[in-house]
Amino acid sequence: ESFAKDDFIYGQFPSYFRWGIGTSSYQIEGAWNLDGKGENVWDNFTHTSPSPIKDSSTGDIACDSYHKYEEDAKLVKSIGVDFYRFSISWSRILPLGTKEKVNQAGIDYYNNLINSLLHHEVSPVISIHHWDLPQPLQDIGGWVNEDLIEHFGDFARILYQNFGDRVKQWFTFNEAWVICVMGYGDGIFAPGIKEISETPYKCIHTILKAHARAYRIYDEEFKSQQKGQVGITIDSGWLEPSDPNNPEDIEASERALQFKFGMFASPIVFGKYPDIVRKRVDERSKQEGRSTSRLPSFDKYWTDYIKGSYDIIGLNHYSSYLVTPASSDPGPGWYGDQDTATSQDPSWPETGSTWLRPVPWGFRKVLNWIKNTYNNPPLIVTENGYSDLPNVVLNDYGRIEYYKGYINNLLKAVIVDGCNVRGYSAWSLMDNFEWASGYTERFGLHNRERIPKESVKFLKNVFRSNGFRRPNLPWDRQSKEQ
Ligand code: GBH
């Protein structure tokens, strides 16, 4: 490594680099039952009692972005970004989840938002699905039912048809790992299913096929005219060996990265699940006396269909973890299969979220791991951000420190290490409904009243400078004049 872990460098990103800010539909829109929108799994989940949400809140109103999209577009503009990454509420467009019934008010809403952004010269970047599955599709099994592959394809096609003349960057899924492990395994996110042994694998399998379907539809029916790009957003922290000199910890770190990022990246890049995942789940399934592996396989057709189904990969990254082999086996399923235990170094600063401690150098490491493992694919950082507890209001100095360290490590990854990162999107435009934590954790650059926090000034300056410009010092001027 050419720099100590925490060295700050001055420098600028390449001229093609693009800056953005992000949100997602359920977290900001509200208007959960207005103008023909159907119910989705997060509406359903937050309306169950007792509430599974920390402060018993819902996204019924959230930031009211359904009514305030013009203010949102202005806010986005005021940060000086090139793009705004937002997601589409599937049940606002297709109230029943299927193409039989299209809700024109939903199409109108996103047309208005897109046109407001373009009016401010901000490019729209769309996440097709950020967790708010129409409830009628959950009622037929959700992501374990392979009928959803075609329904997702239909949904994507409707979006390309209606918005593709103006939208050139699409991401099919946001963090399918969260949907499948937290939603169908741990059950702490919607739809609240607690079946850790097999269901997350089935969910991942269907989602990968649905992703490829949406990619191929664009490629075959729209790309030559619309000339955009389609990718998928995958989340991963950096998973550092607990003891970097211990070979068992080094192996555990690699295993954890393969179970997390590799589960999605390896199929789309190489056409198969990571070898280590295949081997471990197959072996353990056999030991359990099963005739087939808990991890499904892709046949020849799907292998070819999924392999290469990306123009770009999105990375969501927030924090780092220390990894070592697990001390006990929790049994068949997602956690037992990978045999890893993760922790965080208590010396790393705390934030508003228990799982998020700032570790800026981990960002550079995960970017380099992706570069080395997948032959330096084009990447966009689709999310990176910092949370405060409600007691921190507008003086968010912790957030400034975080962005400074993380974006500086991104700069090192790009200009020193040659990682092929094309853009960066901070999370989030404003405080919003933070899933199972409700409104108790705040990631916004603005509060929910849309008042800017201190960090806006800082990020605006980084974006405008395309990096970190060394302050002009008297001797700079002198040397230029000589
Ligand atoms: C992103 O996920 C989401 O894409 C975004 O919607 C969200 O607002 C943002 O993070 C901030 O959380 O509660 O201890 O069980 C990042 C990955 C996965 C991190 C779920 C937090 C919950 C940990 N997230 N995880 S815990």
Characterization of the model:
By secondary structure, the protein is an alpha/beta fold. It is built from 18 helices and 13 strands. It has helices spanning 25-28, 41-46, 69-78, 90-93, 104-119, 135-138, 147-163, 176-183, 199-221, 223-226, 247-270, 275-287, 300-306, 334-338, 360-373, 397-416, 454-465, 474-481; strands at 11-12, 18-22, 83-87, 123-129, 169-174, 229-235, 238-241, 312-316, 320-324, 341-343, 379-383, 421-427, 467-468. The strands form three sheets. An eight-stranded parallel β-barrel has the order 2-3-4-5-6-8-11-12. Strands 7-9-10 form a three-stranded mixed beta sheet. Strands 1-13 form a two-stranded antiparallel ribbon. The protein is globular and about 75 Å long. 50% of the residues are buried. Ligand GBH is lined by residues 24, 27, 174-175, 178, 182, 235, 316, 318, 354-355, 383, 427, 434, 443.
